Amino acid sequence: MKVAVVGAGAWGTALANVAAEATGELTPLIGRDPGRMAEIARDRTNAARLPNIPLHKGVYPTADKTTLADAGVVLMVVPTQTLRAVATEIAALVSPESVVVSGCKGVEKGTLALPHIVLEEALPGSRRALLSGPSFAEDVALGLPTAVTLASADEAAAALVCEALATRSFRPYRSTDIVGAALGGAAKNVLAIAAGAVAGRGLGASAVAAMVARGFAELGRLGLALGARPETLAGLSGLGDLVLTASSTQSRNFSLGLALGRGEPPPNKLAEGAATVEALVALAAEHGVEMPISTAVAEVLAGRVSVGAAVAGLLARPLKSEI
Ligand SMILES: NC(=O)C1=CN([C@@H]2O[C@H](COP(=O)(O)OP(=O)(O)OC[C@H]3O[C@@H](n4cnc5c(N)ncnc54)[C@H](OP(=O)(O)O)[C@@H]3O)[C@@H](O)[C@H]2O)C=CC1
Ligand SMILES: O=C(CO)COP(=O)(O)O
Predict the structure, then answer these.
(1) Which superfamily does 186-316 belong to?
(2) pTM over 0.95
(3) Which residues does the chain have with pLDDT short of 70?
(4) What is the ipTM of this complex?
């Protein structure tokens, strides 16, 4: 089963290595810039996005999108806000039997669509799945043990993708709860910014843990409203990814929060939480769900309040029962 990866960033490159190892097939890693892809092909490493990691010998870096036409699995691994445009560009090339998998974590601005809905709209009639879970690209590319959720309403599609990606160290667990898996991935990036900001401001490990746990409660309320299963939210793609992302400086979202909390300039790297937070809060509001921590992150990122004022605002909220 051939896998093609669209998006030659850190995560796309790591997943291309996994797929090449799992399938033993030539795996196109498709980027948008022919010059950059030629460099990656020459150097056998993606120096800009995933430095010091050699490409698997089966990975074929290219800017030629037609190389995905005969792939049984197409992994879409671009920033969430660009997913629709990229999926629309490749729509005519994807075979009807292929499973198209979102590797994105976020909510689309404007439409408030989760990534699998973006795929459904851009690639109507296609077989779809979503991959999410605690998995830093570098860890995966180094072959360190990793477990993720592979969600699809189409169980045969999920099984096919799992087979095309499972290696001795990369373990995709199947789920039919695509909404739960997508929500966990989107919310944890925002909550990791909050945890980082609290840590950066020096408020202590107890405060960081409170932020993570109350953030998880926000995710739970939104999940309930959208029909996600509680066990998905408590699993790899929910709590698992939240714990990872909200506790490690390897995370771009946590690092952004740390910088905000310390009053330092934000790191110049993609933090999906920053791109997603307004849409996540709007999606929650549409369903009558309050997300005070995520709202505070949105306010801080928009420059409307300081981290100190946001924390003071959260501490001033009336106490309720824990849920
Ligand atoms: N990094 C990680 O550890 C993980 C990331 N993810 C998720 O994967 C997604 C991608 O993240 P990641 O790979 O880290 O991001 P990167 O910033 O490393 O890479 C993003 C890639 O998308 C490409 N891209 C950006 N805009 C466009 C566009 N308009 N059209 C086509 N291609 C575009 C970029 O191309 P170019 O290089 O030319 O700019 C780049 O190759 C995110 O949703 C993220 O949350 C999920 C799990 C782990
Ligand atoms: O999604 C990730 C790990 O599961 C990567 O997190 P960051 O985007 O915060 O680096």
Answers:
(1) N-(1-d-carboxylethyl)-l-norvaline Dehydrogenase; domain 2 (1.10.1040.10)
(2) yes
(3) none
(4) 0.98
